Amino acid sequence: MPTLNLFTNIPVDAVTCSDILKDATKAVAKIIGKPESYVMILLNSGVPIAFAGTEEPAAYGELISIGGLGPGVNGRLSETISEILQIKLSIDSSRFYIKFYDSPRPFFGFNGSTF
């Protein structure tokens, strides 16, 4: 159930969007150690974002997971997602924030219930 919600001020075409979704799904699953079938990635492009007083390319992400997160894992996730955004959208890593949430099972719903 790891869920990565990404926002960027760059408009993203369908092909690039699909590539980012696939790459991020694989990366999150591998790094957290959960099956790809549990991973959800959302990409919100063309969102107005100002970072450090400019509207140059930037991104913000939130990753929520039930377990699997911690200082080492979070660092690897930050590095890897940043690399994907750099390669696919030319967003410099210094213009990307990501926030991590380790959610308790009853605080995340799925299939009409909670985990």
Structure commentary:
It is a single chain. With 115 residues, the protein is an alpha/beta fold. The chain has two helices and six strands; from the N terminus they run βαββαβββ. The chain has helices spanning 14-32, 71-89; strands at residues 3-8, 40-44, 59-65, 96-102, 109-110, 113-114. The strands form two sheets. Strands 2-1-3-4 form a four-stranded mixed β-sheet, with helices on one face. A hairpin with a 2-residue loop joins strand 5 (109-110) and strand 6. The chain is globular, with a radius of gyration of 14 Å. The relative contact order is 0.23.
Structural class: alpha/beta
CATH architecture: 2-Layer Sandwich
How many beta-strand runs?
A: 6
Rg computed from alpha carbons, rounded to a whole number of angstroms? 14 Å
CATH class: Alpha Beta
Helical element count? Answer: 2
CATH superfamily: Macrophage Migration Inhibitory Factor
The strand order across the widest sheet is 2-1-3-4
Alpha-carbon distance between the two ends: 9 Å
Give the count of structural domains.
1
Helix content: 25-40%
Instruction: Give the overall average pLDDT.
Output: 97
The low-confidence runs, each spanning 5 or more residues with pLDDT under 50, are: none
- State the order of secondary-structure elements, H for helix, E for strand: EHEEHEEE
Shape estimate:
globular
- Write down the CATH topology: Macrophage Migration Inhibitory Factor
Subcellular location: Secreted
Main location: secreted
EC number: 5.3.2.1, 5.3.3.12
GO molecular function, one term: dopachrome isomerase activity
